[in-house]
Design a protein that fits this description.
Layout: E1 3-6, H1 14-23, E2 27-32, H2 37-45, E3 48-51, H3 57-64, E4 69-72, H4 80-93, E5 98-104, H5 114-129, E6 133-138, H6 144-147, H7 149-152, E7 157-159, E8 166-167, H8 172-184, H9 186-189, E9 193-196, E10 202-203, H10 204-215, E11 221-223, H11 226-233, H12 239-253, H13 263-268, H14 275-281, H15 283-286
Parallel strand pairs: 1-2, 1-4, 2-3, 4-5, 5-6, 6-9, 7-11
Antiparallel strand pairs: 8-10
Pfam families: NmrA (PF05368)
Domain NmrA-like: 3-240
Length: 295
């Protein structure tokens, strides 16, 4: 039976990907950083949970043993290219049939963001390795809305980007299902580069209005600096994210995240989640809990 390695298995794409693949009858090895409640939930679902660091070659090799296909995903931060080299080396040693690599929609060699440029470099690493690879160049996740849900509860829709900048947000579970379908047909998708977007393009101001409409509240768009944005999220000391968001502001002004593709719905064979569906699915995160009335 085919075994598929899922890195960042507790993340916004890894977690639903594990579910989809197990449902389709694949064996799944879930790579996580810590043995906690989330890891136990993966075990309970039937995944083989392994622990490790993508920047530790020994860990990566151990996680890759006996695997036929693998998902590579790396958070915004230092070490992406080094991690890609280790992952590609281990994949070559195991003669993998397919790697699915998570990249950026605006991936290019002369990107404003070093993180985005490193995604492009990582794409090249996987190509040089000779292991068949599908690169997913993905736009902003709808999960961005959850990052600011604490502000939305109090009527604030805050972003570090210009209100006119356009993009088509996609739900993490739709990315996960797209990857799962790719894993099921490696001979069809290996060597491809797919740009993934959601079904509807918005400006940031329009998206704020749509979220407000669904929640039934006034939610005017508010732009702050990237530094202030990270402080509001409680991660003001994360310099890697600060530099990335500053650079993505330029990408947005240049229209590099604008547009809609039909790639994801074509691969999964069904419509993608809308913003309305996403907000309703996570409605409790966006609304104040006043508690039960006293009796």
């Amino acid at each position: 039976m085919t075994t598929i390695l899922i890195t960042t298995a507790n993340g916004e794409t890894g977690r639903p990907m594990v579910d989809y693949l197990l449902r389709e009858g694949f064996q799944v090895r879930a790579m996580v950083r810590a043995d906690d409640e989330r890891a136990q939930r993966l075990r309970d679902k039937g995944a083989d949970v392994v622990f490790g660091d993508l920047l530790n070659l020994r860990d990566v090799r151990k996680a890759m043993e006996g695997v036929q296909r693998a998902y590579f995903n790396y958070p915004i931060g230092d070490g992406l290219v080094e991690a890609a080299v280790m992952f590609a080396q281990a994949a070559r040693e195991e003669n993998l049939e397919l790697i699915v690599n998570m990249s950026h929609f605006q991936s290019r060699p002369h990107a404003h963001s070093k993180a985005t440029q490193n995604h492009w470099l990582s794409e090249q690493v996987f190509e040089w390795s000779g292991v068949p690879t599908t690169h997913l160049r993905v736009t902003f996740f709808m999960q961005w809305l959850l990052y600011i849900s604490g502000l939305i509860r109090y009527g604030r829709y805050v972003m570090p980007f210009d209100k006119e900048s356009r993009f088509a947000p996609i739900a993490g579970r739709d990315i996960a299902l797209t990857a799962a379908r790719i894993f099921a047909s490696p001979e069809e998708h290996g060597g491809q580069v797919y740009a993934l977007t959601g079904p509807v393009e918005y400006s940031h101001e329009e998206l704020a209005a749509e979220v407000g409409r669904v929640l039934g509240k006034d939610l005017p768009f508010e732009q702050v600096t990237p530094a202030t944005f990270l402080e509001l999220l409680g991660i003001g000391a994360d310099m890697a994210k600060l530099k990335h968001f500053e650079a993505v502001t330029l990408d947005q002004r240049e229209g590099r995240l604008a547009g809609i593709t039909d790639t994801a719905p074509r691969i999964i064979g069904q419509p993608l989640a809308t913003v309305e569906e996403f907000v309703n699915e996570h409605r409790s995160a966006f609304e104040l809990d006043y508690g039960k009335p006293s009796t």
